Amino acid sequence: MSELPPCPQCQSTYTYEDRDHFVCPECGHEWRAGEAEMEDGLNIKDANGNPLADGDTVTVIKDLKVKGSSLVVKVGTKVKNIRLVEGDHDIDCKIDGIGPMKLKSEFVKKA
After folding, report:
1. Cβ atoms of residues 109 and 48 within 8 Å
2. pLDDT recorded at residue 80
3. The pLDDT value given to residue 76
4. Where do the DSSP E strands lie in the chain?
């Protein structure tokens, strides 16, 4: 029996193989063989130090003014299906009622 690699996201040893992918039943992360070594190098963490990944849901921890508008993103706003990007504002997302935005990871926590 072959040794399966641990999950690159949560380090769980309970991974299993599904066709050409590996799956972690604890955090739901899926990856291809060899993909864990070729990560794009984005090591982005939330305000509490938890690692973020594409597709995560986060919660805003501070009222954020929207530049060029009178709108405010309120504390506790849930943002679903985030996308990580490089730069100062390292989260690309769409907020209900406001639209597409870029957020700083220091103002969110993983939901």
Report:
1. yes
2. 95
3. 96
4. 16-18, 21-23, 30-32, 58-60, 64-65, 72-73, 78-79, 83-84, 91-95, 99-103, 108-110
Q: Is the pTM of this model over 0.85?
A: no
Contact present, 14 and 6 (Cβ < 8 Å): no
Per-residue pLDDT band at 93 (split at 50, 70, 90)? very high
The contacts of residue 84 (CB under 8 Å, 6+ apart) are 42, 44, 52, 53, 54, 90, 91, 92
Residue 70: partners with Cβ closer than 8 Å, 6 or more residues away = none
Q: Report the residue count for the chain.
A: 111
CA distances from 50 to 16, 20, 44, 58 (A): 24, 28, 8, 11
| Dihedral over Cα of 51, 57, 58, 59: its sign | negative
pLDDT band at 47 (very low <50, low <70, confident <90, very high): very high
